[in-house]
Amino acid sequence: MKKRSSPDLxxxxxxxxxxxxxxxxxxLGEMGAALQxxxxxxxxxxxxxxxxxxxGALVLEERNGVPEALGEAIETGLSQxxxxxxxxxxxPQAPLxxxxxxxxxxxxxxxxxxxxxxxxxxxxxxxxxAAEREPxxxxxxxxxxxxxxxxxxxxxxPGGFEEMLEPLVERHSAEGVxxxxxxxxxxxxxxxxxxxxxxxxxxxxxxxxxxxxxxxLAGFRAWNHSRAVAHRHARSLDGxxxxxxxxxxxxxxxxxxxCGAGHLFSRVPADGEKRLYGxxxxxxxxxxxxxxxxxxxxxDALKKRDGALWQQLDQWATTLERQFQDAVEVQFTVEDTRLxxxxxxxxxxxxxxxxxxxxxxxEEGIGDERxxxxxxxxxxxxxxxxxxxxxxxHPTLLVKGLPASPGSAVGQVVFFAEHAEELHNQxxxxxLVRHETTPEDINGLKVACGILTATGxxxxxxxxxARGMGKCCVVGATDVSINYHINEMTIxxxxxxxxxxxxxxxxxxxxxxxxxxxxxxxxxGGLAKVxxxxxxxxxxxxxxxxxxxxxxxxxxxxxxxxxxxxxxxxMFFALxxxxxxxxxxxxxxxxxxxxxxxxxxPLQRKDxxxxxxxxxxxxxxxxxxxxxLNEFLPRGIRSQTRMAKAMGIPLEVIQRRTEVLTEANxxxxxxxxxxxxxxxxxxxxxxxxxxxxxxIVMKEGVPVQPEIMVPLVSTTRELEVIREMIEELARRxxxxxxxxxxxxxxxxxxxxxxxxxxxxxxxxxxxxSFGTNDLTQMTYGFSRDDTGIFMPSYLERxxxxxxxxxxxxxxxxxxxxxxxxxxxxxxNPELKIGICx
Length: 837
Known about the structure:
Layout: E1 13-15, H1 25-40, E2 48-51, H2 53-62, H3 68-85, E3 88-89, E4 95-96, E5 98-103, E6 115-118, H4 122-130, H5 135-152, H6 158-171, H7 182-198, H8 208-221, H9 226-234, E7 244-249, E8 260-265, E9 277-282, H10 288-291, E10 297-298, H11 299-305, H12 307-324, E11 328-335, E12 338-346, H13 351-363, H14 369-374, H15 379-385, E13 388-389, E14 397-400, E15 402-405, E16 408-414, H16 417-425, E17 430-434, H17 442-447, E18 450-453, H18 461-469, E19 472-475, E20 480-483, E21 488-491, E22 494-497, E23 501-505, E24 510-513, E25 518-519, H19 525-537, E26 544-545, H20 549-557, E27 563-567, H21 578-586, H22 590-615, E28 620-623, H23 637-647, H24 651-661, H25 673-678, H26 680-699, E29 706-710, H27 716-737, E30 744-749, H28 752-756, H29 758-761, E31 767-771, H30 772-780, H31 791-796, H32 813-827, E32 832-836
Parallel strand pairs: 3-4, 16-17, 17-18, 18-19, 26-27, 27-28, 28-29, 29-30, 30-31, 31-32
Antiparallel strand pairs: 1-2, 2-7, 5-6, 5-7, 8-9, 8-11, 9-10, 11-12, 13-25, 14-24, 15-19, 16-23, 20-21, 21-22, 23-24
């Protein structure tokens, strides 16, 4: 049985200046809620009514026909509107004209633009002309209505309207429709009308009330258009139920004098400077601003030409900033010198501008720190904390695609995943370029510093995987032509060959030729101040993921209170260490394994010493080796031959050992704590390296606080056995070196079973850290590396509201986390809790 919206979400909400109705953004959409705020502020706005999101959800549920509740709501809202206006929709003697706009609950593009001038007919046109409306203005408005209704409601191809318009423009030697006279526009409207009455079986309803109903249905249903779905998914807004719709009386902006349309920002969107910024186009309606036929004036030019209008706009911009406690973006129309505000919303702005606006508004007393933080997109911090390209040398722009994952990447071009792996093993940085990536490319994606694809959108495989890995990625660079046979790509007249250098900007989607310098992020100035505000408000500690001394140093600079996850397997990825680690894996007996571990011990010890020195007493949680041994096996005859030579054993032995260790499902195989059960000497080497490093650094007078984390525990006994080994070895090493320190031992909860049996595991753990990536994989049965195949379809069809690897699934994974914490703390009240992933 379908869930029906409650009655209070189906009632139309009329509005006019000075008479706001109650409502909120989720019910009325951003535009609807903002119109009520405009009414409350006494702003000059056309009268109207709002059909709430509940009605939109009802329309999407029923799919066909007109829900009874929608028909009742339209009639109720329209009756109130007609009473206020003293005119009726479709009445030739006292006609009411309206616009129809979508009002989504978040600032996302909709697939159906506004439908303007609804209510016009030939009879109404002639009435208005008889009432001394300028004929050209009226016929222009009627032609606009017919075309807009045909394209957006009846879904007729725009090309058909262009075929009617172009000959007319040529015959009148005009540059565009805006230069046609009244007679030509009457002819154009007649041609449009004929097309709407019969083309493709789509007919214009005769009654304006039915026209309005169909326009509203089209607007509600546009919520599920693939383009609208893609935009919502890109912003993690897949869980929204639908859109509201706004019906307003028309304000005429197309007259010759004292009429026009404009779009303003209360502050400059590029840098946040406090001054009006925007465009104004005389004798126009809103869509003309972006149509490209005429060049709008800047608001600076308007100030010189019509200072009185500019002054009104400036006053309202100031008023609305205080009303909304944010920089605002306003659409307006001027009818016979009278200003109407049509909509207002929080202004779109660059990351640089967003930071400046937040700081300035607090400084000006328009909002407080808490309010400013709520208006800052968390992605702003992400933008500022990634290295950016230094473009001061005006580099050659190759192509611009879609910015799928932020940051920047500079590397040598490769076209195959295996080439990326080979060059990575030689210590080289690569950019993997593909038409589109597939799960088979995963090893190349892991080691490439950046990804570029010629096809795909923001939910493509490359985009999803790159965001999950935190790699810079540009997708949908459609001008890129790749020839895999000769290892090169062409963009226009430029050819880029394998190993040529390119630079990616994941914030803009730009791809540049050559090796551009990268500017490291700095925690200074405005960003530091904003993060200071966040520190006052936050309720949890923040540690960093850091696997090297350089990462640790950077974490301290950025304000981390410690290291929450030091992944020791990353320490073995260095070019000079992989052969030693492979010797240990491929050893046929304990003697060979012990020899390799003896080589690795001083390397690990030095890593830990350097990290502990940098952290200077801050907690450092070190996860013992976790990834599948499978990942380190030598692949290919050349790599295996080198290993055989280095180990002094026959190639056949290496090949046989590699075959034995290869796993069908390595992420669920020989990894994590299972290594300590089968090869305890690996974890023993790591524990010795940690404890020895801590003792040596303590002797230098530097405080230490190491914590050891056992990964992938599923049973109580696993943690018991490994903890006993760690504690016994730690005591022995401390005694050898004459130092003691408290050593916390905990576990990463990343299997569903560990969460379920938390009550039994908690007595043996000083802390839990929830590894939400693996916990999500195992709870859903998804492979994170492969979700790009089906995740876009799941999101588009509403099977999932959000990607669970981007936003934590609260119903399933979150419930496991909650259960594990509650059960664990019942038996171990001192249990510390962390989360990473």
